[in-house]
Amino acid sequence: MKYNHDVRGTAWEHVTIRQLLQHTSGVSWNEDYTNSQSDFSQLTQCEAHPNTYACVNNLVKDPKRKAYAKPGKAWSYSSGGAWLLGDTLEKATGESIAKYLQDKIWQPYGMNRDGVWHSYAVGKHDAGAHGFNATLEDWGKFGLFVMNNGTLPDGQQILPKNWVKDARSWNKAKNSVNKLHPEGTYGYEWWNNSIPATATDVAPTTSLSYQDSMWALGIYGQIIMVNQAQKLVIVQWSTWPKAEPSMLEQPLEASLMFNAIANKLAS
Predict the structure, then answer these.
(1) What is the pLDDT of residues 131-187, one digit of tens each?
(2) In angstroms, rounded to a whole number, what is the distance separating the alpha carbons of residues 184 and 168?
(3) Residue 33: what pLDDT?
(4) Is 81 in contact with 111 (CB distance < 8 Å)?
(5) For residue 206, what pLDDT band results from cuts at 50, 70 and 90?
(6) Fewer CB within 10 Å, N or C, the chain?
(7) How far is the C-alpha of 108 from the C-alpha of 111, rounded, in Å?
(8) pLDDT tens digits, residue range 85-104?
(9) HSE of 93 in the Cβ direction (CA atoms, 13 Å)?
(10) What is the enclosing helix (H) or strand (E) of 126?
């Protein structure tokens, strides 16, 4: 990665930005939220360390960290990869993720309230993997920003023209394609949460197709659903009993409910 020289000599060295976005780096990372020894748990423990950035940086870029697949060949959600994506953005732009978001989108779009992004030091080193907070209304406005292909109210195009469509072009790497979603599970930090192919005894199933709908799915059920075809954005806050339930549990319930809402609005 030419924007982050720290990864030289590590398993991340030949991973592209696109592969980080898709979580197809092929670099080993244990995301288990219930295991106190997992990489994710160690990342959060680092955030209580007096030198947080160095602790997390050393964890993610540990030269002993191995690859389990060639970049682009296998999918596995990785907060380590998401953190590295944020770290790379900061190195490429020379400013914190929060400052970049504020100047490029948050203020120009006219969000109603300040957002809060977990930072390791004042004004720098924001946590690329997690830790962003905003009001429900502003999450919805961010969904509208995406629905409108990254266009500001003044008509300025912030995102590349085809970015949103590419973001929901579900990757076909191993593990992204499965029995639930043979079309693929994941795009550019967005999920495919359409009704699973195996869920044949539920309804409604057709309103929010996998071709048109993209879902931001946070742990414990924080959701933004964007459907450009229907010009529809739905935001949900939740306290699911599990951080990451099976796609046939609460995510399916959310998909069924959102489909029902879409059907009602279209009728």
Answers:
(1) 999 999 999 999 999 999 999 999 999 999 899 999 999 999 999 999 999 999 999
(2) 10
(3) 95
(4) no
(5) confident
(6) C
(7) 8
(8) 999 999 999 999 999 999 99
(9) 17
(10) strand 124-126
- Identify the band that residue 1 occupies on the pLDDT scale cut at 50, 70 and 90: low
Residues 10-33 as b/e (b if ≥16 CB within 10 A, e otherwise) read bbbbebebebbbbbbbbbebebee
**Dist CA 79 CA 266 (whole Å):** 37
The torsion angles phi and psi of 252, rounded to 5 degrees, stand at -65, -40
pLDDT at 119: 92
What values do phi and psi take at 27, rounded to 5? -90, 130
* Structure token pair of residue 46: 């680092």
Question: Does the pTM exceed 0.85?
Answer: yes
Burial of 102 (0-12, 13-18, 19+ CB in 10 A): middle
Q: What is the DSSP letter of 245?
A: -
| Average confidence score pLDDT of the chain | 95
Q: What is the DSSP string of 163-218?
A: HHHHHTS---SBTTB-SS-TT-SBSSS-B--SPPTT-TT-S--SSS-TTTEEEEEE
End-to-end CA distance of the chain: 49
Q: What is the full DSSP assignment across 51-75?
A: THHHHHHHHHT-TT--BSS-TTSB-
Six-digit token pair at 3? 């924007």
Q: 122 phi and psi, to 5 degrees?
A: -60, 120
